[in-house]
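Side project, low priority. Logging it here so it doesn't get lost.
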Amino acid sequence: MITEYKWPTSIKANDVWRNTVKQLLAYPSVVSPRGQPIKEMLGNQTVVDMHYPVLTNNGRKLGYRFMAAEAEWILLGDNRVDTIAPYSKAISSFSDDGKTFFGSYGVKISAQLPFVLQKLCEDHDTRQAVINIWRESPPHSKDIPCTLSLQFIYRAHQLNCIASMRSSDIWLGWPYDVFNFTMITAYVLLSLRKMDDYFQYGDIGRLFLTAGSQHLYLTNEATAFDAMVSNDAPEERLDLNLFGSELELLEFLFHAKDRRLEEWRTKRKSQNKFLSRLL
């Protein structure tokens, strides 16, 4: 007898993040890659409804301007330091030459996006719509990519993303990765809507993020516990139908990163409340 898989009661970013932090805090073993102690779960998968990709936990003070800026930066295929550094105090330290980032996702994504779109249009059920982000046999660098690949699978009128990561930090990186992968998926689907009527009424689905090492640094353990028991600010739902095209999504992120969303809403006569914390 085949039984239907029952999804967790809530797979919004807030609840998935809190549950993963709780699991890691309770994990007994400690390992020390590069001499830095972490609690770690191997082969861990988190599943997030991409309609709710923004962590709004009051105890985790995220850089929401950086969140929007990085997503736009990736989608534009950028890898330059000077275009993203104004939104993050620390990110420049990961560049090897002070000019570009060796492991930037955008360069790989923009180069392979036409292939992904073509495969999904040729075969709506394809399993070959994959973007490789990992650099084979990478040289020594301060910016080795944490993400290996992104796979896009269209099922039940929803575009899902399977993200494979070698390493995922639940405190430092996971909240930004969930948002970025959601924006990439949204961009892909908005592009498909223009190319093939089959996707016209499709929606974003779930993000399956599988991490070889899902971890929490011990230096963040106490802060993570305090955040875990903190309340969440109101959750924000991403409605893809409020964007007429992938270019409108980019324009939205462009305004969000500089706190100009009210200007964007007025121009578009939009009631979009997504990322309202950046108004």
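Brief comment: The helical segments are 13-26, 64-75, 105-122, 174-195, 221-228, 246-257, 261-268.
Revisit when time allows.
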